[in-house]
């Protein structure tokens, strides 16, 4: 078991499945009112250089729910904002806390911190990856559909951090993934080709969202402009318009398909309010499952 979780490619399929298996048990036990204290006496440092509602609160609730404690640091409150070297930050934080959960811009920030930390470093979103989110999304797929490897999962929209982590998950966990992205907004070709080389089921990139969703069990979308891309918001709205997940697109998928959205959602942009609030959408279950997955991640990485 690797110390850090920087991207899903840090782990094999069995190790990824183990997070989900443990999260399912922790969720059931919580529903039965059973207390957890496996992280008593441990402290996690959350260093967030971008905004967050779900990831921050679900990591904090996860840590408290396992008997541990949390210190939250927004990027602007640390010396990182004044260019303190990451290698110093990593070494110093390792003296105070038992694990670092980091949300930041470049993936290299997480890998550099990991390199210089003697404690586990967990990626809570970078421009390139959102690995913890995809684990909770896959947990939700398993809960709602009863299986994973026989599912056709479709990504509609930007080839962004979420898409990259889905690609890596498909490759390591062995499910079919089709991505429909506009020209110029495809996933990183290196991440895609590396994943395709290892994959046992097809990972396919197309441009036409209608073609992609035929026979889909799971349709998945995300905002058209991610954090840090606010300047591109207007331009992206017109480019991405045909990629909206709406009733018309949903009707082309399997009748019992489910719709995933990691939230926050922009209603009437990437998804209509009708679909987001409709019976096929499981976005709020996904949001809950983030807390259970984060418990499993913290437990595995802190306990070793
Ligand atoms: N899904 C997700 O990561 O949400 P937040 O940005 O609110 O953490
Ligand atoms: N792709 C989005 C995900 C938000 C949870 C972003 O990076 O802003």
**CATH class category of the largest domain:** Alpha Beta
CATH architecture of the largest domain, by name, is 3-Layer(aba) Sandwich
| Distinct small-molecule ligands in the complex | phosphoric acid mono(formamide)ester, norvaline
Shape: globular
Description:
The protein has a five-stranded parallel beta sheet with strand order 7-6-5-8-9. The longest helix is centred in the last third of the chain and has 21 residues. The protein has two domains: about 140 residues, Rossmann fold; about 150 residues, Rossmann fold. The protein is an alpha/beta fold and about 300 residues long. The chain contains twelve helices and nine strands. Strand 6, helix 7 and strand 7 form a beta-alpha-beta unit. About 50% of the residues are buried. Phosphoric acid mono(formamide)ester binds next to helix 2. Norvaline (NVA) binds next to helix 6.
Secondary-structure topology with pairs:
Blueprint (H helix, E strand, L loop, with lengths): L12 H19 L11 E6 L5 H12 L3 E6 L11 H11 L2 E5 L3 H9 L5 E3 L7 H15 L6 E5 L4 H13 L2 E5 L8 H10 L4 E4 L2 H5 L4 E4 L11 H8 L6 H4 L7 E4 L11 H4 L6 H21 L1
Parallel strand pairs: 1-2, 1-3, 3-4, 5-6, 5-8, 6-7, 8-9
Helix pairs in contact: 1-5, 1-6, 1-12, 2-12, 3-4, 5-6, 5-12, 6-7
The chain binds phosphoric acid mono(formamide)ester and norvaline (NVA).
Q: What attributes does this structure have?
A:
304 residues; alpha/beta; Rossmann fold; 2 domains; four-stranded parallel sheet; 12 helices; 9 strands; 43% helix; globular; binds phosphoric acid mono(formamide)ester; binds norvaline
